[in-house]
Protein 1
Amino acid sequence: MLKIAVIGAGRIGHVHARSVAAHPDAELVLASDPFGDAAENLAKEYGARFTKDADEVFADPDVDAVIIGSPTDLHLGQLIAAAKAGKAVLCEKPIALEVAKVDQVQAELDKINTPVMFGFNRRFDPSFAAAVDAAKSGKIGTVEQVTIISRDPAAPPAQYLTGSGGIFCDMTIHDFDMARHILGDVVEVSAFGQNFNADIKAIGDFDAAVIVLRSSTGAIATITNDRACAPGYDQRLEIHGTSGSVSIDNVRPTTLRLNNSEVTAAQQPYLDFFLERYADAYSRELSAFIKAVSTGEKPNPGIEDAVAALRLADAATVSAHEGHAVSLV
Amino acid sequence: MLKIAVIGAGRIGHVHARSVAAHPDAELVLASDPFGDAAENLAKEYGARFTKDADEVFADPDVDAVIIGSPTDLHLGQLIAAAKAGKAVLCEKPIALEVAKVDQVQAELDKINTPVMFGFNRRFDPSFAAAVDAAKSGKIGTVEQVTIISRDPAAPPAQYLTGSGGIFCDMTIHDFDMARHILGDVVEVSAFGQNFNADIKAIGDFDAAVIVLRSSTGAIATITNDRACAPGYDQRLEIHGTSGSVSIDNVRPTTLRLNNSEVTAAQQPYLDFFLERYADAYSRELSAFIKAVSTGEKPNPGIEDAVAALRLADAATVSAHEGHAVSLV
Amino acid sequence: MLKIAVIGAGRIGHVHARSVAAHPDAELVLASDPFGDAAENLAKEYGARFTKDADEVFADPDVDAVIIGSPTDLHLGQLIAAAKAGKAVLCEKPIALEVAKVDQVQAELDKINTPVMFGFNRRFDPSFAAAVDAAKSGKIGTVEQVTIISRDPAAPPAQYLTGSGGIFCDMTIHDFDMARHILGDVVEVSAFGQNFNADIKAIGDFDAAVIVLRSSTGAIATITNDRACAPGYDQRLEIHGTSGSVSIDNVRPTTLRLNNSEVTAAQQPYLDFFLERYADAYSRELSAFIKAVSTGEKPNPGIEDAVAALRLADAATVSAHEGHAVSLV
Amino acid sequence: MLKIAVIGAGRIGHVHARSVAAHPDAELVLASDPFGDAAENLAKEYGARFTKDADEVFADPDVDAVIIGSPTDLHLGQLIAAAKAGKAVLCEKPIALEVAKVDQVQAELDKINTPVMFGFNRRFDPSFAAAVDAAKSGKIGTVEQVTIISRDPAAPPAQYLTGSGGIFCDMTIHDFDMARHILGDVVEVSAFGQNFNADIKAIGDFDAAVIVLRSSTGAIATITNDRACAPGYDQRLEIHGTSGSVSIDNVRPTTLRLNNSEVTAAQQPYLDFFLERYADAYSRELSAFIKAVSTGEKPNPGIEDAVAALRLADAATVSAHEGHAVSLV
């Protein structure tokens, strides 16, 4: 029974706490959040202890593993503190907002040698995983082109995005990881930012973007992002190889189809939120983490994946502003 | 070059005339219709001669083959007359409205030995044909159950239906032929009529029906008919076998799909009329007829198919009114 | 917190126990099964007590509600015993194998007035429920025809089926309930049995069947059953109304589609088992039961639904053997 | 009756000749091709005259309109000659291989004022047209992102491609026109070439590519090309707007779907060749040309569209080789 603490009792903290509670081999023992009653409320729901001070989590001998779901600018500090305290860590994405700070942390973690895994949940979604497996199994030959469509239902308030690190770091980061997961090393990044939302433009961020990644094999991944999508949370992937292709479609709440004099075979809007869409993925992600910790295998995706995705976000930001491809080799 | 005459210059006559005109090995030479300018108008469109008198068609030495698209009650007489005159015949369905009259005609035709084919156009539709081929090729194992959905977009006026022979003879006849085409001999018919349309009820006909056919192999075909279907002309088939199944979907005018906050993947209504839906089928049917005539092979579907379908319609009428299965063996 | 006991620690008992454990307002307190370690094993998994004797369940003052998942021939006796002991009851389908015994039980239960609900789980499946809701909301006009396809992946051993009551009672019972749920009173049943499996034929049962139900409104439901279906557990429904139709498709494990030189848009086989396919439905069914018990509302589907479905099964058996429609009015 | 001559009796010349023959308001009067029996063979099929010398076409007073389907390097010269002779012209794409030569021709044509239309056939495909109409009608709000997938079934021999002007000029030209048709003016082009085919690389061309176009409205179109695609001729489009999106899928020969223990809902491979896929489009294109000529309306797409697409191809070539975006303003 792995004793787990959750740091950050917000939306994502609740998702992880629920997965922990439902997992036969894990137990939520502690929740931490500095704000108001957040930690207490979360803890009570699952019969755990709580604290406002994350340091108490690291110091607690009864905690085996820590799930970090705090604001991004706290990730690096908490990661190091947890690792130094000998805890296994599952950290939310992105690892940080700036590439510059990450190298030193990575070096420190390498010395400590504790299991550290990062929350690229899409890798654990049954549909994304099935597509990636099909591609890796050789079922479609050699991969030549990957098309990722990734759109949110509606943009959050610009204010929320102020500390997000920008669309590439906050939103595309998942797609960067998925592209790397399929293609391996990316050698060139070209990004094209779009501004349809005046509030988001005012804070110097893009609200839509296209990114073209070239891998070391010559394959290209194209990512299309938009903060807004009327039909719902639009998450699709297609992998085109020399002998075939696989794709995954959006998920709807039911298989219902409607036919009338206006439309036929009409399905419902897509699931409208990432927590709904990736509910299974979060729980499978936790299982993978628990399994890695218990078997001693290196957790995957690891810190090198978190850093690589952040580097892509950084390169995309440069490319989008400077109008040329950015080489990563 | 097969010289073809069309008898009956109504809607279906025009369809056949167009197919003849477009066929590289056939030529429309004569059109016949007793009413008004119908024959003349059709003939002029394709540079053919015309007459009000069908007997002139049979007597014309310059006519090799006759397509009979006249009202059903004229079919048998014209069929015999054309055959006696040595013409090849492509006759529209149904062969007649009453089984009683058919036996003698079939006996006469057997003696004459001229090519006679019947217009069960659905056998020539690329999608229906592909499903039947898949089933016959053994791709889905032994056929156990067939589900046919066949609905018209909207009921014709009750007045039009007065001389139609009833829903089983006029509408289900196509589905009966398709079921026989897939399953072979039918040994038992059970039919269930429905009345939602008061005008059609008033003339003693049903406007919707379900028919269950049991074949000599033990397989069952279920046919669901309705004279009205808001999303369009609804024509589907599923064949379920021991190792798999095949189905065919409705056809839409384009592959367009619409996604918005109400619906996703919404397609357009089905093609709205049998002439549109089966345009290809009519032209492939004509090709099969011309090929049979030119090679001397027996045309298929032949008169035994026309008679068998009519017998099923007759049995269905009895079953629907008497509330029990009707055995055909 | 509703204290629940499970009677019958087989496959279905485990499904219900898991739902109870996951439900925030319910608690599994007791499991009963006369065979081997079944009750003990189930109980230990969820921290409950156990017994080999169902009578101890009825006598236990700490049990508020009982879920009956025992063999069908025990249902009626346990139902009465639980009700007399003042327990709420959720009973698996079918209520019994013979209509004859049910009337008296229904009369007794009416006097006792305890909440009794029956496990027609499909009513609680999100897709089936969405289709039924759409039909009942008037979105497709007046319902005219219902098409239910319901096939199992593979037949159980004939031996297992010996005590099942036959295909109509054991398998079609779900479809009978669904047809009634959509159409209301059924006035006429016609059934057509099929025998492809020699072992099942040897025990006097059918392994496939088509059933036609006529409702008091004139609408017709067609049910197509097969004990075997190579692509998986085939569960579909289409409701055709005067202004449109709704349908629900099978569920696959992911949204993956494969394209190559042989096939395009190929999806995976359907979920292969009812426990997987209806996992959500079982948990929503339990929620509905708990809500009914806690609010005092009459549980739905109730005993009248269980009895009505059994009467349809009985009528279908007669119809299939005698070759005529069986009237229920 | 428009009297039409076809210049170039190759594959595309035959396509146009067939459309002309089938059109009620047009007649094929003359075919020209300098090689072997090509012109004669084509002409005989449709009862037209023939010549080896294109100049005879321009000089022929009995020719109203000319369809130019000759090799690309002849287009400009024949276009001017035909226009000077007072013929209406339908010219195949691309207008030329080099932008440099086009300006002068465009200036000359402007002075002559004869109807000149270019063969961007996809604009006339029912599915592409339906998607574009939906977008232009405001049904999906303001267009933000366009995704075009356009892959050929298999690469032609490298030798054939030697004089093609490269992938952007030969293949992407259709997608450039479609992007412009939807988005209007393109202000920036970024292209990414890929080399998987060694033969094509050896002649200095790419065999796959991704192109990102930014329009003056800020919308972005992403085009993904590949010379090879195992499932067939892959031609899809998605237009994402502020209130919804439309997409069009590939076309298969039938609506057949196959279900077995390996795959479900599997469709057939896509139509395997552009002549099959766009058969309707070619005939609708001809109708639009004939209508423009007969009404005196300016044909659309006109020379400015042909030139604009060529400029995009030119810019893409520069971008792909130099690794930066190319501005067109």
Protein 2
Amino acid sequence: MTQENEPIRVGVLGARGRMGQEVCKTINRSDDLELVAMIDQGDWLFNASDAAAEVVVDFTTPDVVMDNLHWCIDQGISVVVGTSGFTPTRLDRVKSWLDKKPEVGVVIAPNFAIGAVLMMEFAERAAKYFESVEIIEQHHPAKVDAPSGTALRTAQIIGEARAAAGLGIVPDATKDEVSGARGATIDGIRVHSVRSMGLVAHQEVLFGTQGETLKLRHDSFDRSSFMPGVLLAIRAVVNRPGLTIGLGDLL
Amino acid sequence: MTQENEPIRVGVLGARGRMGQEVCKTINRSDDLELVAMIDQGDWLFNASDAAAEVVVDFTTPDVVMDNLHWCIDQGISVVVGTSGFTPTRLDRVKSWLDKKPEVGVVIAPNFAIGAVLMMEFAERAAKYFESVEIIEQHHPAKVDAPSGTALRTAQIIGEARAAAGLGIVPDATKDEVSGARGATIDGIRVHSVRSMGLVAHQEVLFGTQGETLKLRHDSFDRSSFMPGVLLAIRAVVNRPGLTIGLGDLL
Amino acid sequence: MTQENEPIRVGVLGARGRMGQEVCKTINRSDDLELVAMIDQGDWLFNASDAAAEVVVDFTTPDVVMDNLHWCIDQGISVVVGTSGFTPTRLDRVKSWLDKKPEVGVVIAPNFAIGAVLMMEFAERAAKYFESVEIIEQHHPAKVDAPSGTALRTAQIIGEARAAAGLGIVPDATKDEVSGARGATIDGIRVHSVRSMGLVAHQEVLFGTQGETLKLRHDSFDRSSFMPGVLLAIRAVVNRPGLTIGLGDLL
Amino acid sequence: MTQENEPIRVGVLGARGRMGQEVCKTINRSDDLELVAMIDQGDWLFNASDAAAEVVVDFTTPDVVMDNLHWCIDQGISVVVGTSGFTPTRLDRVKSWLDKKPEVGVVIAPNFAIGAVLMMEFAERAAKYFESVEIIEQHHPAKVDAPSGTALRTAQIIGEARAAAGLGIVPDATKDEVSGARGATIDGIRVHSVRSMGLVAHQEVLFGTQGETLKLRHDSFDRSSFMPGVLLAIRAVVNRPGLTIGLGDLL
């Protein structure tokens, strides 16, 4: 837990990546935060503990993020994670590490844009009122995973809300389908991943019932849109032990 | 207040209009409701009291709705109102009538579609997180009023939420404007009314902040979309004395 | 070929279906057309020839449409076809039948809405300027085929235009995909089929290049939107021997 | 007229502005172009003629662009203009200057993005098929003019196409309007200007007829989207004497 009036000491993992650079700049502009370590491939994680980082922000890759998390939690450093690829199995492992370090906080968020967080909140709220729902996410063609982490998380949230409301499966008479046309099925929800030059990061949740539809659409036009959410998470995680999924509870 | 297991006795004002006909059909299909009076231009309002209507549904026009409401409240009949044109002055008059009949309930809703109700709820929730917000409503070209009642109500809700959050005016550097280009200003919010053949009833609320936008869009494709909300309001109003604006609190 | 000033004699196959009924009503309202035969399951095709139909409109099903076409062409009756399911193989068979009856005309259109026809024309025109393109079609959940016939035809048109312009494959770095997320691949173009209550018939073609996107979107809200195109095809086919695919050339 | 294989000598006016800087970088990366003069406020226009510029690109402001154009035409230098504010009166003056210098070319374009150029071409083509049409343009809130130059040009194109097709006024029953709700009227077409943080430069043209709508939407996410069009215009203008409005004819 940080002292009053002292800036929070922050390290950044993946500091030379596109998101990492933006995070470093944003921390430097914030009076209540101090950037104490910039770490990337080939650097020692110990740089973070040597610099007495209280929080580490991780924008790395799915293949190294679990090792990073394990090491930080062991060191008693809280973590804000923007890296994707968190399956239920991975989340369970993080929880087991945190059980042994009850004072450490970890925030793992699929999306740090305030609009995306609200989109997920609204999708959860709307789910029980509509028989039909599908997710269409749209990203630049350099993205390697489909669907996006945000879409996966949204589908999971909607699936849980439908189950809690006793809604059955989404109506669909399709019997003659060219393979893939109807998208991926995530927790019972159809998800479509569009990739195109010109796009950045976009998602639409389409709800439908008799005679009407409701669309929730979020558009991220540049990485600056994620910075307010990253700051919010850094400031919250130092006083929030345990695992937090998404920024919804921090708003 | 209605007895258990007895159907609610309902009268419809404007019963020969497009919405009124749909309401009558919907009531006839509902086991817990009984259609006891169908009243339109040239018919006596007393038909509703003679038939012992407990609730009257009013889809008439702005020039007669106030007389209808006054009469119903005097008779002790609760009312569900879908007619548009309710200014703050009109609402104050309805409240003053209800003060003398504390057991009577009135629900006045700008829109009975569940998606529209949620759109307004979400707009209120999102308002404080975005510096920018505008409303674009789109309707068929036979509509006589612009903006729509739903857009006016949404603007009012957003304006109040911004004021409560201490947000200032929406940023806008426009200094060279062809008259009307920037829309109407309702409670500080710009509202644009699009009219086109092929359209039915649509509204988009656009929120924006640094690097991102969030859109809430509702599309009504036919009048059937309003019926679940009308039923909800009829069933609620018999046990809900006083004035209720919008369906938000009934969900 | 029809005589001047005499109405064109039209028969309708699938006359009791939803589209068929609308077509019959539309023909009845047109002074230059005469509805001479309404035929559906269980009726004799000979009713059309007995009534001296010059044109037959076919809105039936993929399993009977080929027999209908063969019979009409044999009888020397021109045909306007709105039934879906026309593969290249089927089109070749229709051509071979027409070779023996050079005076007969057949128009097969995946979509009779003017907006859909223009959407396809514009998609063909835009294709060579954008590295990326995907199709998202959205329909009511009672639809049995995915993608829609219009989407298949649009993909084919775009694929051909890209090939003619020497464009390579659409850029896509996806390597970690939940099966189906990236849609169906039709002639090299990704197609996504969304199904939801509240929807009618909608399609969006998304083009993208560096820093910009262009979207062409068509929305059909009811079957009346197809009638002007059906009339156009009926009037054209009597003077247009051979096979015509789509309404594009008739505009 | 430029010699074969020699790079075209280009000067840039407004070279220190946001668009100007991007144009300079783009010219520097192009083998067939040579950047010979970068001119901004306080610099001499003669720098362009001293450097033997064959083409000048002008991204300045409406208050200086006419003087720039007059000077360039007098000097026999062709011009590509991206500055906005060209009224019919201004265009007539440019034409009168060109009459005296028949070998000089001027291209004035409201938008250099290929998607915007196609949007305008398609809008012109579609106009005669739809009774209803409206334009909704959306930009960042730092924009000073409303509607945008692109929207004004699109409205003009559509207005002319409707007149040529004998279409009357757009249907609109509005009689109770909050001032501005129905937008600005440009050549008979309603134009709505939305301003919001998070937006860059976007425009939608909505066409409607019975039961259907067709939407053409262009989104520019960053200034890089304009560069291919600027290059196209530079290369074309050296061999294209006289005044050319828009890039449509250069595609």
